Amino acid sequence: MTRERATEGAADGSADDAVRLAALFDEHAAPVWRYVVHLTGDRAGADDVVQETLLRAWRTPKILADEPSAARSWMFTVARHLVIDEVRSARRRREIDVAEMPERASADATDALFEAILIEEGLAALSPEHRAVVVRAYYGGLTIAEMSAELEIPEGTVKSRLHYGLRALRLALQERGVTR
């Protein structure tokens, strides 16, 4: 932890405040930092706790006016409470440190593959006329009029083939174990 980082909270104050906080840092930062590292084992987290502890001491001038040993024990108590608060925080309970980012979950395509195979087999069981209309309607997205023009058959025939083709497809799929 550097003196500049610890004193950045006093940047908007007077020069006297910055000097007071720098003196506070020089006198107490190292022992408080060692204490927090001993408690947590986290050197980076200890920097944050020490900074907050020093700022609280700086904002409480009565503590600094007392005997230096009393001020330091007060800072140890404040640091300990900050560590306990961090451990108990909801953010800490939900965060899990991992070495690598986990892979994103992806949907299993096995079911979709089996359904596609079943539909392909069911379509193969249809007559070529019925299959042509069903495929154009459901996979091509064509309307009755467009299929009629493309296949050069009347619209009524397209409707009839679509109706009987879907009925035959339903029966073919039921034979393969697909139920509604």
UniProtKB/TrEMBL annotation:
InterPro entries: RNA_pol_sigma-70-like (IPR039425), RNA_pol_sigma-70_dom (IPR014284), RNA_pol_sigma70_r2 (IPR007627), RNA_pol_sigma70_r4 (IPR007630), RNA_pol_sigma_r2 (IPR013325), RNA_pol_sigma_r3/r4-like (IPR013324), WH-like_DNA-bd_sf (IPR036388). Coiled coil: none annotated. The keyword Transmembrane helix does not apply. It holds the Pfam family Sigma70_r4. The keyword Transcription applies. Residues 24-93, 123-170 form the RNA polymerase sigma-70 region domain. Keywords: DNA-binding, Sigma factor, Transcription, Transcription regulation. Belongs to the sigma-70 factor family. ECF subfamily. This is Sigma-70 family RNA polymerase sigma factor.
